[in-house]
Amino acid sequence: MYELFALDFMRRAFAIGLVVAIVAPTIGIFFVVRRYSAIADTLAHMSLAGVALSLVLNLASIPTALFVSIVSVLGIEHMREKKNLPADTIVSLFLFGGLAVGVVLLGLAHGKNVNIVNYLFGNIVTVTNTDIISVSAIGACAFFLAIVLWRQLFAVSLDEETAQANGLPVRWLNRMLAVLGAATIAISMNVVGVLLIGALMVIPVLAAMQFRRGFQSTWVIALVISVISVTLGLIASFYLNLASGGTIVLFTIVCFLFASLFSGVNSSSLHAQHHS
Amino acid sequence: MSVSKKVPIIQVKHLIYERNGEHIINRFSFDIQAGDYVGIIGPNGGGKTTLLKLLLGLLKPHHGTIQLLGGSPMQASVRKQVGYVAQRGGNIDTQFPATVLEVIRSGRTPRLGLFGHMQEKDEKAIKHAIKEMGIESLLDRPLYKLSGGERQKVLLARALVGEPKILFLDEPVDGLDPASRDDFYALLRKLNKDGLTIILVSHDVHTVAKEANAAICLKHQLVCHGNKACMIGEDELKDLFHKDRKEILLHHDT
């Protein structure tokens, strides 16, 4: 195992992986409980458009992807508030729009030695020191803001109408959450890739929800599942020569299955006790 | 929570609200005094919930004015002084992963400000609301494990931790069994006795006649407003429900 940490690129992979493992479920839990997880995929496609733009214009990929995602997500929120179109239609519009822009721009950047597979499926071993700085800075800001606004985001996610009736700035909080989602997507690109980003935000939370605990406990369990999945995923992908993104997501799914099984046993034994 | 009597706490003037060109609320004007227990009554689709949402500032009127606690219901400072219990647990997902205590504590959040934290007075208000509702034994229970009656008590406790001056309730006992209904109304009576102004939306004439001390009867138009005696008049009931008084009261008794 020690040889793993003797390698520079693996140390970088673990550093960036753990940042994402902590931030993704922290923001993802609010999307999951609001049944709004489809937005993660949309933002991922907008990030791809951002990466493609950065390649065409020779800009840094993560900040450009972040900028494009934020602009898009604010557009989605604006259209959602207007209520002229159903929320899922708006999300689809941006999802396919982002993908189309991304594909066209990647075509323009074709001559620039671009490996599109790295962006689609993630390649954590290609992470640079600059990426670590960007991811850590953006991740720390997103995590800090989520913790500071935790109570407000919880109240709005639980019951938006009552939160608004009681004077919480619901519109502002929704936009802030959308921006935090965009930040999470932008920093997760190298770890799991555009096509699997949503999984890291959603599956650990879904697994944690199987235990049917309170909100704080669900978040803590989701964090543990996420960190375990990223750690085991990186180790397995190193020794078995597997794609890191897919391996990490497969571990989250294994955790989900274990959680479903364990929580099922737990509740049936409680049920049996209750009737005895 | 106590407020002096006979001060207009809500003033509505020439209120109009339209949906798809149709008048849902047509030229309403009325006052509500501090300490009142007002029933908003009318048939389904008559505009009761729309009126409640206008009073809460969740909808914007097309014409007219609403003064709530001396300000506009759109102002955050005014909204922080109201409590709201929505119909059948409101928009809360039954599978939402939260304990009873987490839900109740969230009712205090608007009072804390955007970056504020719970202080001793906040914890005191939370403990008081829990005690008043008698739900100490439920605090660690997940939301999905509650019965309908327990759920409504928890939501009432969430509304009370904000120490509101006015409590709005939209058909709060809809779907509850008779014992839970009686229990819930007894809690409301006690809160009103302690000085809290209560605005209760209901389609149940009998309950409003029994519980409230004033009524607003509507069916897109304001049929009557004021003393609850107006509500159980023969003509008003016929206007509202197209049924005889005897038939309506008999229906709600059963």
Brief account:
The complex is a heterodimer of chains A (276) and B (254). Chain A has 276 residues and is mostly helical. Chain A is built from 13 helices and no strands.
Describe the fold and architecture.
The complex is a heterodimer of chains A (276) and B (254). With 276 residues, chain A is mainly alpha-helical. Chain A has one domain (2-198): Orthogonal Bundle (ABC transporter involved in vitamin B12 uptake, BtuC), CATH 1.10.3470. In chain A, 83% of the residues lie in helices and 0% in strands. Chain A contains 13 helices and no strands. In chain A, helix 3 crosses helix 4, helix 11 (197-209) crosses helix 12 (215-239) and helix 11 (197-209) packs parallel to helix 13 (244-275). Chain A is globular, with a radius of gyration of 19 Å. Chain A starts with a helix and ends with a helix. With 254 residues, chain B is α/β, with parallel strands linked by helices. Helix content of chain B is 35%, strand content 25%. A six-stranded mixed β-sheet of chain B has the order 5-6-7-3-8-9, with helices on both faces. In chain B, strand 8 (214-219) and strand 9 form a beta hairpin. The chains are: A mainly alpha (276), B alpha/beta (254). The interface between A and B is medium-sized, with 28 and 38 residues.
CATH names the topology of chain A as ABC transporter involved in vitamin B12 uptake, BtuC
SSE order of chain A: HHHHHHHHHHHHH
Helix content of chain A: over 70%
Distance between the termini of chain A: 49 Å
Radius of gyration of chain B: 18 Å
Could you say which overall geometry of chain A the principal axes of the C-alpha atoms support? globular
Number of strands of chain B: 9
Largest sheet descriptor of chain A: none
Q: Name the CATH homologous superfamily of the largest domain in chain B.
A: P-loop containing nucleotide triphosphate hydrolases
**In terms of structural class, how would the helical and strand content of chain B be classed?**
alpha/beta
Strand content of chain B: 15-25%
Stretches with pLDDT under 50, minimum 5 residues of chain B = 1-5, 248-254
